[in-house]
Amino acid sequence: MTERTLAERLGYAPQDRVVIWHADDIGMCHGANAAFVEQAPFGLITCGAVMVPCPWFAEIAAYCRAHPELDMGVHITLNAEWLTYRWGPISTRDPASGLLDAQGYLPRSVAELHRQMKPEAAIAEMRAQVERALAAGIDVTHIDTHMGAVLHLSLLSAYIQLGIEFHVPVMLPRLTRAAMIQQGASEEAAAAALAQLAALEDSGLPVLDAIASGPATRGDPEPAFKKALDALPSGVTHFLCHPNKPSAEIKAITPNWEYRQADYRAGLSEELRDHVAASGIRLIGYRRLRDLIRGQA
User: Parallel, antiparallel, or unpaired: how do β-strands 72-76 and 235-241 relate?
Assistant: First the structure.
């Protein structure tokens, strides 16, 4: 008997395109929070994930407590990439952990993190972020990873185990070895990930069929987003973007602020909403996958 696809387990046909339109970097700054609060009821962006160590975590946590219907995950954050806007780990201030750079923040790049971290410290930080989100009253629907930092041989298993322990899906698509390496994984980590994916599927936990990014565009987002959405494959795809409400704040944080503002406009576009409906794309959030895990689907 042929195993049912994840789409079929969710009640869709195998050829359906089921899309999780996901807002990354919630809590990173006020503009990211404001964008998500405005976009969530509009009907395109279905869920987001919060960066627990960041300065504006408390604001979005309070909003989630007041709006428990929001589909919010934890964006495991092990680096702080911006030049002048930084954050540190929440589990330790010990330089021996390898989680601090010379300025006392999380390492700027994922490569720097992987070179200097003590894996046990990084794993403790991952757990602390999930636990703090739960303690803050967020009804955590999933766990994912900022800039792919957990795609490391010493971290990947712990990342998956967090999902198993807390009974939530982890964002882990069915990627080829080449695709994992392209996203920053080592040869060893890619091989380990493939083994983990096989084990996850054997256990019945959901594994996504694909991951895709919203297009990087500075101008009118509709044409580029239509093209990106039309190219999505059948099955369940994690479609990520980084919406941020226009402000002086985001302009001070990143030189790529225009891309984030375009993502904000896309998530509020009636033209794109009509296009999604006409194309037959099925939009869902991670709560549907969590319900599948917990036997409530």
Answer: unpaired
Cα distance between residue 134 and residue 128, in whole Å: 10
Per CATH, the homologous superfamily of domain 6-293 is Glycoside hydrolase/deacetylase (3.20.20.370)
User: 126 and 60 in contact (C-beta within 8 Å)?
Assistant: no
Question: Residues near 288 by Cβ (< 8 Å), separated by ≥ 6?
Answer: 10, 297
Within 10 angstroms of residue 93's Cβ, the number of other Cβ atoms is 11
CA 206/CA 189 separation, integer angstroms: 20
Distance (Å, whole) CA 225 – CA 97:
41
C-alpha–C-alpha distance, residues 82 and 109, integer Å: 9
Q: What pLDDT does residue 1 have?
A: 37
Helix (H, G, I), strand (E, B) or coil at 142: strand
- Per-residue pLDDT, 2: 53
Q: Are 229 and 240 in contact (CB under 8 A)?
A: no
Domain boundaries, the chain: 6-293
Q: 10-residue block means of pLDDT along the chain (297 residues)?
A: 81 97 98 98 98 98 97 98 98 98 97 97 98 98 96 88 92 79 74 77 81 93 96 97 98 97 98 97 97 83
Q: Which residues, including other chains, have CB under 8 Å from residue 293's CB and lie 6 or more apart?
A: 167, 168, 169, 205, 206
Q: Which residues contact 265 (CB under 8 A, 6 or more apart)?
A: 221
Question: Global pTM?
Answer: 0.93
The enclosing H or E element of 140 equals strand 140-145
Following DSSP, what letter does each residue of 7-69 receive, concatenated? Answer: HHHTT--TT-EEEEEEEEEETSSHHHHHHHHHHTTTSS--EEEE-TTSTTHHHHHHHHHH-TT
Question: With contact defined as beta carbons under 8 Å apart, do 225 and 277 qualify?
Answer: no
Q: What is the DSSP track for 88-113?
A: --SS---GGGS---TTSS--SSHHHH
